[in-house]
Amino acid sequence: MGLISFVAVFGLLVLAHELGHFVVAKLAGVKVDEFGFGFPPRLVTLGTWRGTNITINAIPIGGFVRMSEDDPSVEGSLARKGRATRALVFVSGALMNVVLAAVLFTITFMLGTLVPVADAPGAGVYLVAPGSPAEMAGLRPGDTILSIDGQPVDDVERAIELTQDNLGRAIAITVERDGQVLPTMTATPREHPPENEGALGVALDAPLQRRAYPVWEALPKGIAATWGGIRGIVGSLIAAIRRQLPFQVTGVIGIYNLTTEVAQSGLSQLLEFTGLLSLNLFLFNLLPLPALDGGRLIFVLLEWLRGGRRVPPEKEGAVHAVGMVLLLALMVVVAVIDYMRYFG
Predict the structure, then answer these.
(1) H-type helices in the chain, by residue range?
(2) Residue 139 burial by Cβ neighbours in a 10 Å radius (0-12, 13-18, 19+)
(3) Rounded Cα–Cα distance for residues 310 and 304 (Å)
(4) Which domains does the chain have, with CATH numbers?
(5) How confident is the model at residue 38 (pLDDT cuts 50, 70, 90)?
(6) Inter-CA distances, 76 with 36, 68, 79, 90, Å
(7) Per residue in 174-191, pLDDT tens?
(8) Phi/psi at 124 (nearest 5 deg)?
(9) Above 80 in pLDDT, residue 285?
(10) Which among 87, 120, 270, 292 is least buried, having the fewest CB atoms inside 10 angstroms?
């Protein structure tokens, strides 16, 4: 299930991104040779639509758009279009990731999302640290702790007090999940937990209840959640640059592990997680780095600053080629770091 969830999530993100490029390029009259589901080698060609081959490929993750981008001598090339058209085609993939996030967040609110209930008894579980006693006991984000060792938990302070009173000793924990009281779980609070994790390895706050919204309420909430997600990611990046937060980069291995963990929590949580990944992809692709959409936008900006004089296509292509090599090298480094983090 972990592999299936990862392929579905990662594939949806990349496919939505490439679909944005494809639709805007076709509307702009750009010649698109191929729109592929998955990555080569090619398995089958489904047909041709307005001059574009629609293909299914062997690696079932995402998709791609193949069109002439850098050579203005090619008829129908994107390079023959004006600055505004090229910029719109380059940015359309990232914008489609924003649209996807808004749709996923809206669906999440329609299916039902966890909301804090201030006056209810208990302590809501907002985060469970990997490998912690809480995770090994079976606690999940969204649970509400009702009692510890038979003592009722009225609020977060009481939950912390009962936990601290039983460090190093197994305790019985009763939780409520989606309106049902589960069988008692057993966990042993750690006397010397890792930094910022706590004895059980959970983040607690007000109790949580799941609430579903009709589409006319879910849509504005989904849009607001999208904007809030973008602000949160940008804020975290700024804090990391200022050394207020640790700077962490996660690659494919890390995303796979996170996807597997979230998928165990249910469809709603997986959709919300996918929406957040989509926003991360949106911002990452707009970074002003060669080979990324943001890097291509930089060349459009340079052309405008130079009064319409373009950087020679062969030079721009060489910059993006070098950037792609460096990007792939960075991905390998991050993959090694992820491997050491999760399996080392």
Answers:
(1) 2-27, 83-111, 133-137, 156-164, 215-241, 252-263, 267-285, 293-305, 313-343
(2) buried
(3) 8
(4) 118-211 (2.30.42.10)
(5) confident
(6) 19, 8, 8, 16
(7) 999 878 899 999 999 998
(8) -80, 140
(9) yes
(10) 120
Give 291's DSSP letter. T
Q: Please tell me the distance from the alpha carbon of residue 284 to that of residue 332, in angstroms, as a whole number.
A: 17
Question: Position of tokens 């669906």?
Answer: 107
Contact 128, 201 (CB under 8 A): yes
Radius of gyration of the chain (CA): 24
Contact between 128 and 115 (Cβ < 8 Å) = no
Distance, CA of 57 to CA of 49 (rounded, Å): 17
Q: Is the pLDDT of residue 108 over 90?
A: yes
What is the amino acid identity at position 276?
L
> Looking at residue 38, what DSSP letter applies?
E
* 3 state SS of 224: helix
CA quadruple 304, 309, 313, 319: dihedral sign:
negative
Average pLDDT over residues 231-258: 79
Provide the token pair at 291: 């080979």
Is residue 293 within 8 Å of 286, Cβ to Cβ? yes
Say which residue the tokens 């890792």 belong to. Answer: 194
**Largest Cα span, the chain:** 77
CA distance 193 to 132: 9
pTM: 0.79
Q: Can you give 86-130 as a three-state secondary structure string? A: HHHHHHHHHHHHHHHHHHHHHHHHHHCEEEECCCCCCEEEEEECC
Percent of the chain with pLDDT over 70: 97
Residues 6+ apart with CB under 8 A from 122: 144, 145, 146, 153, 154, 155, 176, 207
**How many residues appear in the chain?**
344
Q: How far is CA 315 from CA 26, 144, 212, 322, in A?
A: 26, 59, 54, 11
Instruction: Report the amino acid identity of residue 42.
Output: R
Residue 266 — very low, low, confident or very high, per pLDDT cuts 50/70/90? confident
Beta bridge partners of 49: 52
And the tokens for 310?
């373009």
